[in-house]
Design brief:
Structural class: mainly alpha
Largest sheet: none
Distance between the termini: 32 Å
Number of helices: 11
Radius of gyration: 19 Å
Strand content: under 5%
Order of helices and strands: HHHHHHHHHHH
Helix content: 55-70%
Number of strands: 0
Length: 278
């Protein structure tokens, strides 16, 4: 119920604002090549609202649940990395030089962000982790998504380097403010989407894509202003409408299971089977 309402009332309008010929953000000049604002920012902001409204799991943050199968995490990360080429390069809508540019910038950003996250983690926690590497590469993929077809390859490296470190900091926010974002949707997708939209307004080059505009570093400071306007509009709209949807769903069917059901585990109580038998 929530997913159907969210895609209809949050995603669809923001997609129209940004990508339709008559969309007001498109008319304003907001650039989003493959969905950094439309997909990741909206979902990340909405995830934060969900985490706050639904509330934390039992005994959080005293009890923490690390990924139960890191091998599958790495496998999934690899599938994401490969699939993202279709997500970003495919947004060129044809096999062209623009698609090739988006393909390469996506790859470079993901790789540099993975290294950036690992270094930040190494400095902060005194050890790098494979989970951090995978989280970093996803952060790089998210941040390059709005910029993939508008920036050069060196610029994509800058985006990746910043994305890894900044999104690592975004994930740490949940430890400070104690909201239970179990998949780090806000820290990676929300923060990464915001960062990518901002950097698009700074690093974009019209010479690479005639359908885009130059960014701040290439003589057009207003592009950054338009990007900020798009971030604020999409973020505020997503937060407010998500909150309303959650309240409606809560009234109709509820948002949480009982304490006993949560303790026993949802695989068993809701589905009658367990994915992992201890």
């Amino acid at each position: 119920m929530f997913t159907l309402l969210w895609t209809t009332l949050v995603y669809d309008p923001v997609a129209h604002w940004t990508w339709a010929e008559g969309g007001w953000l498109a008319k304003l000049g907001v650039m989003d090549f493959a969905g950094g604002t439309v997909v990741h920012l909206t979902a990340g902001i909405s995830a934060l609202v969900c985490a706050i409204v639904v509330g934390p799991r039992l005994n959080y943050p005293k009890d923490k649940w690390p990924p139960h199968n890191l091998t599958m995490t790495v496998t999934g990360g690899g599938l994401l990395w490969f699939g993202w080429f279709g997500f970003n390069a495919g947004s060129a809508l044809q096999a062209s030089g623009l698609a090739a540019l988006a393909f390469v910038t996506t790859h470079v950003s993901a790789g540099t962000a993975a290294l950036s996250w690992v270094v930040a983690e190494w400095i902060h926690r005194k050890r790098p982790t494979m989970l951090g590497f995978v989280s970093g590469l996803v952060a790089g993929l998210v941040a390059i998504t709005p910029a993939a077809g508008y920036v050069s390859v060196p610029s994509s490296m800058v985006i990746g380097l910043l994305a890894g470190a900044v999104c690592y900091g975004g994930v740490l926010m949940k430890e400070r403010f104690h909201y239970d974002d179990s998949l780090d949707a806000f820290g990676v997708h929300g923060v990464g989407g915001i960062l990518g939209a901002l950097l698009t307004g700074i690093l974009a080059q019209k010479a690479l894509n005639a359908a885009g505009n130059d960014g701040l570093l290439f003589g057009n400071p207003m592009q950054l202003v338009w990007q900020i306007a798009g971030i604020l509009a999409a973020g505020a709209y997503s937060a407010v409408v998500t909150y309303i949807i959650l309240k409606v769903v809560h009234k109709l069917v509820g948002l949480r299971v009982t304490v006993d059901e949560e303790r026993e585990g949802l695989d068993h109580t809701l589905h009658g089977e367990s994915g992992y038998v201890m």
